[in-house]
Amino acid sequence: MIKLPGMTLLSILLTFVFALTCVLPETTSANPVPAAAKVAKSSRKSSRKKRSRRSKCSPAARAAGKRQAIDLIRTQSPELCRLTGLKLAPGDSIINTAEILHNDGEIADAQAGENLPYEEGEIIAELEQEDDVTPDLEAFRTLWLSMIDEKDGGATQQGVLPKQKLADLVMEWLGTRYHFGGMARSGIDCSAFTQMLFASAMNVTLPRTSVAQATLGQSVGRRSDLQFGDLVFFHTRSRRGISHVGMYLGDNLFAHSSSRYGVTISSLESTYYSKRLVAARRIGEDDIARLAGSAQTSNVN
Q1: Is 190 a catalytic residue?
Q2: Would you call 102 a catalytic residue per the annotation?
């Protein structure tokens, strides 16, 4: 054995081996921690991104939706102008109805609602190309105010539907943000909006999805036969049939929660909605009697 001052060579080797066994585990186990942190951070970002995609409906978009509704009323519906006190737009109006009809439509991400038991919404690219009718909501708001005139009570009733109450609700909710899966004033989707209208106005509980709502009432076969309060259904996604719903108002206009503009008014004559209208249903007296009494409206506030 070679002798070294104060320590043998064997002692040095043992000390070196002991140091390796203590240091290496710490070195190798330290690397996964930042990797896991990165994964968690990436997951949180992905989750936030998905949530934001489900909630696309900016204040600017909602303001545009209001302008759209008003312009459509003033250019498309003399009757609604009469009811609301709005002036019909003159023939030389600067309102470009053709552009409105071309640009109106729905926006929805392909992944929206993937974790929910139903899927509603529209495909962004198709909507931007073909949604081409834009109503003016501020004018529309004024329009519907005339419908609550106590002197004209008869004109506010459409068959068994309380036309006045439904009109009031449409006006109250105009500009509400679209939120997929939402059921509140902070955000609402299309089928929840029609569900809220019938629950609040008639204490009638409609099913939660547009597909299920399309099984109610009687079919309206021709667009020319549509009446105020009829539900209109659209095929706006590639993977299933009916995926969007609104309530008909007359003069080819309907109220709905648009994924582009929030609660707004659109036209059945727009390229987008005209191509995708697949059904219309009328909720009759028998349906109302059967569905009434069980509406739950406490969660829509």
Answers
A1: yes
A2: no
Topology given in CATH for the domain delimited by 56-291? endopeptidase fold (from Nostoc punctiforme) (3.90.1720)
Q: Which of 22, 179, 190, 235 is catalytic?
A: 190
Amino acid at 156: T
3-state helix, strand, coil in the chain (%, to 5): 50, 15, 35
Cβ atoms of 146 and 85 closer than 8 Å = yes
85: left (phi over 0), alpha (psi -120 to 50) or beta: left
Q: Which residues have C-beta within 8 Å of that of residue 234, sequence separation ≥ 6?
A: 242, 243, 244, 245, 246, 273, 276, 277, 278
How far is residue 197's CA from residue 166's CA, in Å, rounded to a whole number? 6
Any catalytic annotation for residue 179? no
pLDDT tens track of the chain, all 301 residues? Answer: 445 555 566 666 666 656 655 544 444 444 444 555 554 555 555 444 444 444 557 888 888 887 888 788 778 877 666 655 567 888 767 777 888 888 888 875 433 444 344 445 555 555 556 666 666 666 666 655 555 444 344 444 556 788 878 988 988 999 999 999 999 999 999 999 999 999 999 999 999 999 999 999 999 999 999 999 999 999 887 666 899 999 999 999 999 999 889 999 999 999 999 999 999 999 998 888 888 855 544 445 5
Task: Answer yes or no: are the C-beta atoms of 163 and 183 closer than 8 Å.
Answer: no
DSSP 137: H
From CA 135, how far away is CA 249, in angstroms rounded?
13
Q: Retrieve residue 139's tokens.
A: 């004018």
The whole-angstrom separation of Cα 246 and Cα 213 is: 11
CA 81, chain centre distance (Å): 27
